[in-house]
Specification:
The chain is α/β, with parallel strands linked by helices. The chain has eight helices and eight strands. The protein has a single domain, classed as Rossmann fold (3-Layer(aba) Sandwich). About 35% of the residues lie in helices and about 25% in strands. An eight-stranded mixed β-sheet has the order 3-2-1-4-5-8-6-7. The longest helix is centred in the N-terminal third of the chain and has 21 residues. The two termini are about 30 Å apart.
Length: about 240
């Protein structure tokens, strides 16, 4: 790791998630919750893309000719759908094991995704049309520095999507205590004190010269699983542009 990367990346977090790399794509494995969450996140992202870039929802490749950056990409659960939507995709992750797993999964599908084990600070000024970072900021060492880094990668007319758990009693119960007790996520994945409230997130984004234009909650129940919701208590997605 370079000095720049150490400003936001927690080495122990990179080690934790790198240990999960081999089973990242197993929908019944340690990343099962992300697999269940992904369709909801993708639906939200697609709607934001269509609105921001004035695309028809029937277009198969609304990101054709555009460049997307996914920060904290893991083994590529979001990068691959973004590539199928037509984007030239770059994926960054702090764990080299995740980058290796991502490349191995994308290659036989003919997906040309540029996976990098590099820090976001190295990508300032690249002017990406779409920047995403889902369930990542709660794992970094310097959240404001991380947000500043995200902002520095965006094109002036770019779009950013972030998701993260809210810091509430419900998120502690569902995403830490019950999730780890029942084995739905590996122990040590979440630390409730690192969760970020929407108000805290909006303040950090504002200080980075960004503006929140939409916030949507993600709720969970046994009958329907994860769904978009007006309730932000568990987890939330935000759409961001340059102010």
């Amino acid at each position: 790791m370079t000095k720049a990367s150490s400003s936001t990346i927690k080495p122990e977090e990179a080690t934790h998630f790198g240990a999960l790399a081999a089973d990242w794509w197993d929908p019944r494995g340690p990343s099962a919750m992300l697999h269940r969450l992904n369709p909801v996140r993708l639906g939200y992202i697609r709607a934001a893309i269509d609105l921001h870039f004035h695309c028809d929802s029937s277009l198969l490749k609304p990101l054709a000719g555009k460049r997307a950056l996914d920060v904290g990409c893991g083994a590529g659960l979001l990068c691959e759908p973004l590539a199928r939507l037509g984007a030239g995709v770059t994926g960054l992750d702090a764990a080299p094991e995740n980058i290796a797993a991502a490349r191995a999964h994308a290659e036989p599908q003919g997906l040309n995704i540029d996976y990098r084990h590099e820090a976001i600070e190295h990508f300032a000024g690249r002017g990406f049309d779409l920047v995403t970072s889902l369930e990542v900021i709660e794992h970094v060492d310097d959240p404001q520095g991380f947000v500043d880094g995200l902002a520095g990668t965006m094109a002036d007319d770019g779009l950013m999507i972030i998701s993260t758990p809210n810091r509430t009693a419900l998120s502690n119960l569902m995403l830490v205590e019950l999730a780890e007790l029942t084995g739905r996520i590996p122990r040590g994945t979440h630390h409730h004190e690192q969760f970020i409230t929407p108000d805290e997130m909006e303040k950090m984004l504002s200080e980075a010269g960004l503006e929140v234009i939409n916030t949507s909650g993600i709720s969970y129940n046994l009958a329907s699983g994860f769904t978009l919701s007006d309730n932000l208590a568990l987890n939330y997605l935000i759409t961001v542009v340059k102010a």
